[in-house]
Amino acid sequence: MDRKFAALSMDVEDWYHLDCLQSCNPDTSKSMLDGFVNYAEMLNRHGIKATFFVLGELAQQARETLLYLDGCGHEIACHGMHHTPPTSLSPAAFAEQLRCAKQTLEDLLGKEVTGYRAPQNALDDERLAIVQKIGFHYDASWLDAPEHPISRRLHFSGWEEPLPGTRWRDGFCELPLCGSTLLGRPLCISGGGWMHVLPWHGVMKPLIAAYLREARVYTLCAYPFEFSDRAMPSLSGVSLQTRLRVLKSPGAMERRVEQLIDMLEHHAFEFATFEDLSHQLRREARP
Ligand SMILES: [Zn+2]
Predict the structure, then answer these.
(1) Strand pairing partners for 180?
(2) β-sheet bridge partners, residue 116
(3) What residues pack around ion ligand 1 (CB closer than 5 A)?
(4) Which of 54, 131, 145, 222 has its CA 20 to 30 A from that of 115?
(5) What is the pLDDT along the chain (287 residues), one digit of tens a residue?
(6) Domains of the chain, with CATH numbers?
(7) CA 85 to ligand 1 center in whole angstroms
(8) What is the residue-wise DSSP string for 61-98?
(9) Ligand 1 centre distance from Cα of residue 16 (Å)
C-alpha cells in the first residue's frame, strides 16, 4: 500500500502580524504567543513531531520554547525575519532579510535550518529561486489549488511531482498547502480563515475527509492566536470579513485539530515534519 504523510505546522507569529489586521494599527504590546506553547503541548500529547515556521524577530523572545521543541524532535524552520511579504521587497532586500532570518535561527539552534514558508505565502518564481539559492532545501508557501491567487504566482513547469501535489527539482522541494473547491471556488483546507469561518461539521470537515480519501500528502498550517487562552485584543475600524477571519471561540481550534488528527489516523497517514517529508520526496523522485 502506498504510504501517506501528514505534516502539521504552525507559523510562529503574533496576532498583530496577520495581514488582514495591518490597516487597524494593532496594539503590539499585547501578545497571543501563548497559543504557540498550547499547540506544541497538544502535539506532544499525541507524540506528533511537527514543523514550526518562526519569524526571526520573535526568535529571542521564544528562545526557550524553540530550544525545548527542537530537543523534543520538532523541526524549527523559517518564516522570514519580519512579516513582510517577499513580493513587496526587491529581490535584493528579500535575499538580505532571508539570510538574516536563517542565520538568526541557526545561531539560536546551533544547527542548519532547511525549510521556509513566506509571510502571506507571497512568493513568485524569482523569489522562490532566491530561497533555493540561499540554501533552503524546501519551501512550503504554495497552495495547490488552481485559480487561487496564491497558486498563480508560482509556476512549476519542468518540475517533477514525486507525490501528488508536491514539486521537486534539482534537490529542492515544494511542499504545498492543500486546496479544494467549494461551489466552484478554490479554497485552502490546510488552515487559515476558512477554518474559522466555514461551519466545521457541515462544510470543512467533509471537504477535508473527501480530500484525505484520495491524497497521499496533507499539510496543516496553524497560527498561535488560534490556540491562545487570551481573547483577541479589541479591533477598531476593521471589516466584518476581517472580524470573521480572526474570530475564535475558546477551545474551538483545539477540538478541530483533535478531530483532524483522528481523521488522519483513520486514513493511515504517517505524521512527519516537513523536513522528513522533503527527504521522502527525494526518495520518491527520479534519481
Ligand atoms: Zn505568517
Answers:
(1) 187
(2) 78, 139
(3) 11, 13, 119
(4) 145
(5) 789 999 999 999 998 888 877 777 778 888 899 999 999 999 999 999 999 999 999 999 999 999 999 999 999 999 999 999 999 999 999 999 999 999 999 999 999 999 999 999 999 999 999 999 999 999 999 998 887 877 788 999 999 999 999 999 999 999 999 999 999 899 999 998 888 788 999 999 999 999 999 999 999 999 999 999 988 887 777 777 777 777 777 788 999 999 999 999 999 999 999 999 999 998 888 66
(6) 4-284 (3.20.20.370)
(7) 9
(8) TTHHHHHHHHHHTPEEEE--SSS--GGGS-HHHHHHHH
(9) 10
Rounded to the nearest whole angstrom, what is the distance from the C-alpha of residue 2 to the centroid of ligand 1? Answer: 32
Distance 179 CA to ligand 1 centre (A): 18
How many CB atoms neighbour CB 178 within 10 A?
22
Non-local CB neighbours of 203 within 8 Å, separated by 6+ positions: 182
What is the SS3 string spanning 211-241? HHHHCCEEEEEECHHHHCCCCCCCCCCCCHH
| pTM (two decimals) | 0.95
Centre of ligand 1 from the C-alpha of residue 160, in Å: 27
Three-state DSSP class for residue 35: helix
